[in-house]
Amino acid sequence: MSSFRYPDGDIVGEALRAGHRIEKLTRVRKHTGDPEGPTLMFTCPGGAGRGNSRSDFIAKENVPEFEGETAWFELETVKATPWSYLRAVRRLPDPPTDA
After folding, report:
1. Which of 8, 49, 50, 92 is the most buried (most CB within 10 A)?
2. pLDDT tens-digit readout, 50-98
3. Is residue 84 part of a domain?
4. Residue 76 structural domain
5. Residue 5 is assigned to a structural domain of this protein
6. How far apart are CA 2 and CA 69, in angstroms?
């Protein structure tokens, strides 16, 4: 079986399509520390801009429901006007802890 090097784009033997990448999404809730609070958005490292943020932000409508605060997803960049956005295509299993 192939390795789980998600940050490097390896999905257990499958090739990623152009415009897709693997990221660990973190849930952002309305009230930090409230596990029952409503979800505002999701974040992942990797903002490429020169601004203050080094994270990408994904709207909650563009991520399928999952339990917990973090999960691995295949993300797709959707080209749109006036700007492109990220959408979670599918959830992936967590990589092994010894990887």
Report:
1. 92
2. 666 778 899 999 999 999 999 999 999 999 889 889 999 999 888 766 5
3. yes
4. 22-92
5. no
6. 26
